[in-house]
Amino acid sequence: MLKLIFFLFLVLPLVELYLLIEIGAGIGGLTTIALCLLTAAIGGLLVRFQGLQTLFLAQRQLASGQIPAEAGLHGMLIASAGVLLFLPGFVTDTIGFLLLIPALRRLVIDLLFSGPRPPGGGRSGDDGIVDAEIIEIETRRIP
How confident is the prediction for the chain on average, in pLDDT? Predict the structure, then answer.
């Protein structure tokens, strides 16, 4: 966890700064700033659209009596994408845009929230068989 915090607060801003300087030297400072603003605007529109879709999905699931856990996880990743797209820089924008791809969000959710899998790929205890026992109870009527 300490390595992740170190990466996020020290290495990532340095990489972002280096890329901004290099790209600015290649295409110009104002063009680089305009490109950062454009990616933030496009990203904001995509985040809004996908966020609303996820909200409507969660409402449909709640209305049908289901728990919208997966929609909530997608919503959290979409919100994270929004934050990354708002930050200036090309690395954070790339990660933010990648999080807006539903298949990649599904992969991230599977990687973060799935436990170790037994040989064969299935989850333990998820073989589709339910062990049950039927107990009959005699009832007597009292006259």
Answer: 85
Close Cβ partners of 41 (under 8 Å, ≥ 6 residues apart):
none
**What type of residue is 143?**
P
pLDDT in tens, 31-44: 999 999 999 999 99
- 87/99 Cα distance (integer angstroms): 15
In a domain, 106, yes or no: yes
Provide the 3-class DSSP secondary structure of residue 114. coil
> How many domains does one find in the chain?
1
Euclidean distance between CA atoms 58 and 103, whole angstroms: 18
> Residue 121: which pLDDT band, with cuts at 50, 70 and 90?
very low
75: domain range? 37-113
**Closest-CA residue to 92 (of 4, 8, 5, 2):** 8
Measure the CA–CA gap between 58 and 51, rounded to whole angstroms. 11
